[in-house]
């Protein structure tokens, strides 16, 4: 109920009366007052005026269930929403919830992540109050071999959500990084549980650098944040909610064909290294190619010095720029 009251306050152009809140939400005036008091205790500045009602004056930058839910406009993603102050990993939490019978579309978000991981075993930590660490549960009826494309679907969703929420134009570094001005601002990790070649569930996890004002010297040339790029702090809950909303849209398009036929052109327009030389790393082996975008399977098309084009799958390689990360 607290999240519903918060959503009503956010949607109101001016003061909204206690009676209106009672009628719209089917609760008593006492219940409304109780939840208003609780919201104030969490840091929301809510003005109250006799015969006018309540008005939201200021809201803190929180990733509580009430705050995220009040921003959410999805059909199914995030209807079961779990928000934490700190945890080991949102991907691990979604796995635990899935094994306990959680439903398709369940979302876990944390203020702080202590054991997060990225692609190929790398770590991805989330500092408290500074970023978005979020994972969600999918139970699609698709072929297991098509699941890796969901990483690219997620990249499109994050890219669009960042642009719509902040105005910052980002790019995608195949297959799973979001890039702004040549530096990483978001990573994506998709994991799958299989049984006899059939999908039990898929976990999609992502971490976005939001309100970080500086990075250690060893990361400053590779990583950036929305605050650094935009010159201002960004409210995280609306961004997290927008990512989920955008994912629903792109996911529906993916399910129609179980490939990227409907998304390939848009992805390639956003690909940061299209028609540029890249370094493809397979174990200890490094090769130089021209990047020619992705195909409908989400594979990266690369051209060698003889003009021969071949496909590269995301699970087997890393891609780097010739002179640096991008």
Automatic annotation (TrEMBL):
- Which key words tag this protein in UniProt? ATP-binding, Biotin, DNA-binding, Ligase, Nucleotide-binding, Repressor, Transcription, Transcription regulation
Concerning CDD domains, the annotation shows: BPL, HTH_ARSR
Kind of enzyme, top EC level? ligase
SUPFAM superfamilies, per database record: Class II aaRS and biotin synthetases, Winged helix' DNA-binding domain
- GO terms of molecular function: biotin--[biotin carboxyl-carrier protein] ligase activity
Read off the InterPro entries from this record: aa-tRNA-synth_II/BPL/LPL (IPR045864), ArsR-like_HTH (IPR011991), Bifunct_BirA (IPR030855), Biotin_CoA_COase_ligase (IPR004408), BPL_LPL_catalytic (IPR004143), HTH_11 (IPR013196), WH-like_DNA-bd_sf (IPR036388), WH_DNA-bd_sf (IPR036390)
Q: Where is the BPL/LPL catalytic domain?
A: 66-255
Q: Which reaction does it catalyse?
A: biotin + L-lysyl-[protein] + ATP = N(6)-biotinyl-L-lysyl-[protein] + AMP + diphosphate + H(+)
- Which Enzyme Commission numbers does its entry carry? 6.3.4.15
UniProt binding sites for biotin: 89-91, 113, 184
**Location of the DNA-binding region in this protein:** 18-37
What positions belong to coiled-coil segments?
none
Q: What does this protein do?
A: Acts both as a biotin--[acetyl-CoA-carboxylase] ligase and a repressor.
Family statement: Belongs to the biotin--protein ligase family.
User: What is the name of this protein?
Assistant: Bifunctional ligase/repressor BirA
Naturally occurring in which organism (per UniProt): Anaerostipes hadrus
**Gene encoding it?**
birA
